[in-house]
Amino acid sequence: MKPAGPTTCASRTSKDFSQPAIKEEPANWRASPTGMPIRNTCLSLRGGSSQAPVSEIPSTKTYEVDVHGFLVDPDQWDERYAFIKSLEMGYVRGLTERHWEIIYFIRDSFRKNGVVPTVYEVCEANRLELEQLEKLFPHGYHRGAVKLAGLKIP
């Protein structure tokens, strides 16, 4: 059985809501280690110049996430988690070096201080305007940057 891909009520062709909105995805979709469907495509991990199909990235490790998709154990985090989570979140071009700088800043700050830095601390330390951060992480600071960093704000 193929994984069911994300869909919305808007993708239904009629106002008949008796049929489920979830549809089977084309063959170029597969399930990620977190259970979400991702498109088999070529993307690179952290700033790398070489690209490999996602299906060729070793997938022996699994990640435990909560009902909202946040990593349960921050110590499980690695770049592969952030990469795959970014695909699930729709970052079809992968993560840029600037994304990685922010992700690592958040993780380093958490490791040093025991708390996730505020959005303002992240912007100030990385010389970013709030609008620039919003463009990098369109899902928002908490549901985007912090989630990709494998952390969550209580």
Secondary structure: elements and pairs:
Blueprint: E1 29-31, E2 37-39, E3 42-43, E4 52-53, H1 79-88, H2 97-113, H3 119-125, H4 130-136, H5 141-148
Antiparallel strand pairs: 1-2, 3-4
Characterization of this structure:
The protein is mainly alpha-helical and about 150 residues long. It has a domain at about 75-150: Arc Repressor Mutant, subunit A. About 30% of the residues lie in helices and about 5% in strands. The protein is built from five helices and four strands. A two-stranded antiparallel ribbon has the order 1-2. Strands 3-4 form a two-stranded antiparallel sheet. It holds the Pfam family DsrC. GO terms for molecular function: sulfur carrier activity.
Keywords, separated by commas or semicolons:
154 residues, mainly alpha, Arc Repressor Mutant, subunit A, two-stranded antiparallel sheet, two-stranded antiparallel ribbon, 4 strands, globular, disordered N terminus
Write a concise synopsis of the structure shown.
The protein is mostly helical.
CATH superfamily of the domain at 74-149: DsrC protein, C-terminal domain
How many strands, what sense, and barrel or not for the largest sheet? 2 strands, antiparallel
Helix content: 25-40%
Estimate what percentage of residues fall within beta strands: 5-15%
Spans of at least 5 consecutive residues whose pLDDT stays below 50 are 1-34, 36-44, 47-54
Describe the strand arrangement of the main beta sheet, using strand numbers: 1-2
By DSSP, the count of extended strands is 4
Strand-pairing-aware structural class: mainly alpha
Mean pLDDT: 74
CATH topology call of the domain at 74-149: Arc Repressor Mutant, subunit A
**CATH architecture heading of the domain at 74-149:** Orthogonal Bundle
Please report the distance between the alpha carbons of the first and last residues. Answer: 36 Å
Q: Which CATH class of the domain at 74-149 applies here? A: Mainly Alpha
Instruction: Supply the number of helical segments.
Output: 5
Order of helices and strands: EEEEHHHHH
